[in-house]
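Quick one: structure for this chain?
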Amino acid sequence: MKSEDSLNYIQDNNIFILGDFDSTISTEVIKYLPNLIKVVSEEKHPIINIFINSSGGYTHILNSLLYHISSMKRNGIKIITHNLGNCSSCASHLFIVGDERYMLDSALLLFHYGEVSFSNRSCKETAEHLKYLQNFQDNSVKHMEKYTKIPKKEIDRMLSTDNIYLTAEDCKKFGVTDYIVEG
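Got it. Here's what it folds into:
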């Protein structure tokens, strides 16, 4: 299930997100997930590994992935996420949902508030984008509270500072990763 140029693909019980959260995830990963869930959920020990090395991208793509991961978990599938070097933005939110999370010792993870471009927008469009951005920010905080041990005050500080990279040791301390893998 991989086209020659795609960095985002599925192979066996492994999902590879090695590029941006863009349309290739929809065409190379998301469209195959219902079938993968069906096949894997019938296995004796259902596990899916998600290998991530991405600087992030579109939140609607992340939301689609999170929807399917929720379905995987409801079907008894264990999700193991792997940070291969960089999980930024949407990729960091994907990483933390793993039932087990592995992170390369030299890897980094970035949480930040979302971004919206306001150039050439009417006042009404800008107001709509601000509502979307506020909703994303609120959901980001809830998501981090649910899947990490970072106190809300620290989450707010991290997100308001923007572009705070966490090392593997930071992630271990904050309950963002379960295991650090020596590179």
